[in-house]
Amino acid sequence: MAAKRKEIEREQRRRLLLEAAERIFGRKPFDVATMQDVASEAQIGMQGLYEHFASKDDLYAQVVVTRVENLRHRVEAVLKVEKDPIEALRALARVYMEVFENSPMFLPVFLMEKARFDWEMESRLGAKVRSIYREERSRVARILRKIQAQGRLGPLPVEYMTQHCMDTIHAALWYRHRCKPTEEIETCVNRAFQVLFSGLSAAP
Questions:
Q1: Statement to judge: residues 34 and 74 lie in one domain
Q2: Which of 93, 117, 160, 174 is 20 to 30 A off residue 141, Cα-Cα?
Q3: DSSP string, the chain
Q4: Each residue of 7-29: pLDDT tens digit?
């Protein structure tokens, strides 16, 4: 019983440290943030921090892995049920809004790492996260191909449409986070899809 309680407490400390690290990395560039910053944010000693994470690189990677895996699982869950492809895309965008509503400080880190991935830049992240990012692109591309096959999108290259779609969702996340933090999620999703399918020009 005591061993079980000790394991639960250890997991709680680890989660507390990950949440503190998320806030620190969301406020400071990686090269500026320190392990001391994280320990102070979590109100845990440095020894306790190093018991869980060997280095700042390890801590940063674990923050991203934890959040990105959670995002992937949420998306997979909502897409298990067969949907009209546009509704599937809306459901995916809705999950993004919900996840970052609960983890707003992770958004700058997420967008920065996605940009590194898109441009094939060096990253501190391992193969696991990059594999999830590739899977995300493939999932969006499959949905867009279905919409295109229905004649609801023009004959643009799927790679172009995929990047445009993801950039639109990212823009919606940024706007809600920076400008409209209390806006209803559905309103944010509707705006993103208006831009995605109708563009920015005024209606004739």
A1: no
A2: 174
A3: -HHHHHHHHHHHHHHHHHHHHHHHHHHS-TTT--HHHHHHHHT--HHHHHHH-SSHHHHHHHHHHHHHHHHHHHHHHHTSS---HHHHHHHHHHHHHHHHHH-GGGHHHHHHHHHHHHTT---S--HHHHHHHHHHHHHHHHHHHHHHHTTSS-S--HHHHHHHHHHHHHHHHHHHHHT-TTS-HHHHHHHHHHHHHH-SSPP-
A4: 888 999 999 999 999 999 999 99
